[in-house]
Amino acid sequence: MKNKLILPIICMIIILILLFFGCGEHYEDEYEPIYQDAIYIMDADGSNKQKVIDVDNCDNVQFIPNSDKILYLADNSLYTVNIDGTENVKISGELDVIDKVKPSISYNGEYIAFNVQERNNREVYNIDVSNCIITNISNTVFFDEFYPKFSKTEDCLCYSSNSNELNMIINFNVENLEKDTLYTTNNFLGDVCYSIDSECIYFTQRTSRSLAILKKVEIATQITEDIAENINTLNGGYFDVNEDYFVLLQFSPNVWVANSLETEETVIIGDVFYPFLSMFNSVLFSDEFDSSGDIYIFILISEDTEKLTGGKSPIFSQDCESIVYISRYITNPKSKNLITN
C-alpha cells in the first residue's frame, strides 16, 4: 500500500517542480519592454539630459527663441510646453496641421508658421505667439501652399505655391501683410529657405518625378541662379542652408550630403534621418526614423562623427548651446518585483 502511494507522490513532486521552473522560464522569455516616447533636452555635448514631457506620435520639436518654451507637433496639432514640463498648451485649435512639414518659428520667437490641410488644398497659417491669434496667410482655393520658412533676420516668411497651371515662390511680410511673387514656373516647387542675410531665397524645383534642382532668387532684383542638381524629390526636396553649406538628399545614391557654397566641395553625411544644419557647420541627425535610433553630431570640416544619445529629431537651440529631441524610456523595467503579466 505504501509503495503504491509513494510513486504518485514522487510523480506529483516532479510535475510541480517542472511547472514551477518551467513557468518561470516561460514568463522570463515572454518579457517585452513597453516604451514611451518623450521630449528631452540636453547640452550640446550630450550632457545634462532632462525629460520634459511624455508625447505620442510626435516627430517635430524645437526651441522657441527668447523663451523657456518648446514647440512640438503631435497628432496633427501644435503644442507649446515649458522646458520644465509645465503649461502644456495646444495652440493650433481644431486645425489639421500637416505633420510631414516642420513648423517654422520666427527669429525672435514671436510668430509660428505651419501647413494646414484644408478640404481641397493646403494652406499656410501663422500664429502670433503673444496673443495666440491664428491667421490664414495664403488663403487660396486652387493652390497648394507648402514649406513656410521664416527669415533669420526679419519678420518675413517664404513658401512655395503650386497649382495645375502656375507655381510660385512667395515672400510675405507678417507685419504689413505684403505679399510678393518672386518667381514663377510650370514645374513643381518644393522646399524653400532664406539665406543667412535674408537677401535671397533658396528653393527646389522639380525637373522630373524623382529629381529636382536647387535654385536661388534674389529678393530685391528677382534674379535667379541654379545652385545644385541631382536632388532627390523625397520629402519635398527638403534642404537646409547656413552661411557656408547647404545640406540636401542626393539622388542615386540616396544619401544626405553637404555642399560648400564657396568651393562646391561635397561632404557625404550618409543614409540618415532628420538632419539639422547648425550655424557652426555641424549636422545633427538620427540613424533611425523612430525613437529607437541614436542621435549623432557630424562635424563638416573634419568629417568626424560622435554619438550623443538615443532618439530622433534633434535640433539645436538658437545659440547652439542646447539640443531638444525625442527619445524613449521603458515603462515596465525588467525586474522580478516589477514584471507584470
Topology:
Blueprint: H1 2-29, E1 35-43, E2 50-54, E3 58-63, E4 69-74, E5 77-82, E6 89-90, E7 104-105, E8 111-117, E9 122-128, E10 133-136, E11 144-150, E12 156-162, E13 167-173, E14 179-185, E15 189-194, E16 200-206, E17 211-218, E18 224-232, E19 239-241, E20 245-249, E21 256-260, E22 266-270, E23 273-277, E24 282-286, E25 294-299, E26 304-310, E27 312-316, E28 322-330
Antiparallel strand pairs: 1-2, 1-28, 3-4, 4-5, 5-6, 7-8, 8-9, 9-10, 11-12, 12-13, 13-14, 15-16, 16-17, 17-18, 19-20, 20-21, 21-22, 23-24, 24-25, 25-26, 27-28
Question: What would you note in describing this structure?
Answer:
With 341 residues, the protein is mainly beta. It has a domain at 1-30. The chain has 1 helix and 28 strands. It has one helix at residues 2-29, and strands at residues 35-43, 50-54, 58-63, 69-74, 77-82, 89-90, 104-105, 111-117, 122-128, 133-136, 144-150, 156-162, 167-173, 179-185, 189-194, 200-206, 211-218, 224-232, 239-241, 245-249, 256-260, 266-270, 273-277, 282-286, 294-299, 304-310, 312-316, 322-330. The protein has a 4-stranded antiparallel sheet, with no helix packed on it. Strands 3-4-5-6 form a 4-stranded antiparallel sheet, with no helix packed on it. Strands 7-8-9-10 form a 4-stranded antiparallel sheet, with no helix packed on it. The relative contact order is 0.11.
